[in-house]
Known about the structure:
Layout: H1 16-35, H2 49-64, E1 77-79, E2 82-84, H3 86-99, H4 103-129, H5 132-144, H6 146-151, H7 161-176, H8 183-199, H9 203-212, H10 214-217, H11 223-236, H12 238-246, H13 253-258, H14 268-280, H15 283-288, H16 306-322, H17 325-338, H18 340-343, H19 356-373, H20 377-405, H21 415-425, E3 431-433, H22 437-447, E4 455-457, E5 469-472, E6 480-485, E7 493-497
Parallel strand pairs: 3-4, 3-5
Antiparallel strand pairs: 1-2, 5-7, 6-7
Helix pairs in contact: 1-5, 2-3, 2-22, 4-5, 4-7, 4-19, 5-19, 7-8, 8-9, 8-11, 16-19
Amino acid sequence: xxxxxxxxxxxxxxxxxxxxxxxxxxxxxxxxxxxxxxxxxxxxxxxxxxxxxxxxxxxxxxxxxxxxxxxxxxxxxxxxxxxxxxxxxxxxxxxxxxxxxxxxxxxxxxxxxxxxxxxxxxxxxxxxxxxxxxxxxxxxxxxxxxxxxxxxxxxxxxxxxxxxxxxxxxxxxxxxxxxxxxxxxxxxxxxxxxxxxxxxxxxxxxxxxxxxxxxxxxxxxxxxxxxxxxxxxxxxxxxxxxxxxxxxxxxxxxxxxxxxxxxxxxxxxxxxxxxxxxxxxxxxxxxxxxxxxxxxxxxxxxxxxxxxxxxxxxxxxxxxxxxxxxxxxxxxxxxxxxxxxxxxxxxxxxxxxxxxxxxxxxxxxxxxxxxxxxxxxxxxxxxxxxxxxxxxxxxxxxxxxxxxxxxxxxxxxxxxxxxxxxxxxxxxxxxxxxxxxxxxxxxxxxxxxxxxxxxxxxxxxxxxxxxxxxxxxxxxxxxxxxxxxxxxxxxxxxxxxx
Length: 498
């Protein structure tokens, strides 16, 4: 009598062809889902201003080796009073060098990073359990997770951050579990921590916090590897330390904008804010509706599915019962450490918590493994069907809503700026751009092959030449308004003449 396919807990020589066919079919189907509508959702003809800044810096690096301020191959990129992280920008520069500048190329690159993140998490599942079902299920879970999916739609540094976290998990597991480890394992772990630190602003704190958890991962077999990781990581921080020495508080500039702790507030207000943040990390914000910045998250839906939350919680307890204790201790520490950078800022923000979905998917590995080990294949089938049905229903709702409402985010992706920009560029008079609209103007000039030399940064009304045009973010009563685009004051763009 044949056993049900769910009763096969491991890949067996008797069915390699069927396993390959099923796996390839699933990967291709998910690949098509992941990259569908990328030209229109988010609105592909427009860039949110941070995206324009990152894309512009990537293009200037690719074309001339300088950033938008003329600095040659900087460690960090100055923008809007802070410094953006280098890894994503340099990687995008390589894409632009090969394929040329473009909004779709940049979005496709971010989506590719999201897809690779899912592959790495699937590989982690295989390394932990050596079961094809667990690896494929983990890969699929990662691809349809709203939190990770939304991040992979944006031309922002955070699009690379989940991949960096996943690589840390893979290298740390390799170092903390199994046979005796060598310094080579430590080198890869140290490099992955360095990548994490240089990828996203939250990583500047998260990387050192992950390092502080190394004693928890220590065992008799990996001492040399962890010491090697420590040495490599410290060496990787040298460029950042030298940059901070040359530019005091540059790497804290973003935190100065959004952070809760400073010397002028005392201690009680930051403590209250941290407590409020932890209170906001609740069921409603994670599983029902969350992110208020709709240029980041397309609709008011949950960041994780209910089944994902249940599997992650169950997987946590299974991990502590079955996994190597060194790995369990460090993993638990890392989950807590991953929310620390966000807890020290204002408000609930899904981008600053972007490590959490990676940990949630990683924990589901242990829950999936339990399914494969249930002795009664009928129970196993019912359990798998229930989980699959829950995820499929919620995923269908999410992707339907995302496809329907996601392309309608034009106002959040600076559609108004493009409208006003084209009006100004079609006019022969000198054009001046206020604050961040100058970066937007430079990027769209590259895309539309317009003359950048005719773009000027606005400094003051007194210095504005007579007969010139000004693209402004706020009203200028002393100038004559030619055109206004927008319905909300925060996103209105004005075209004036003097």
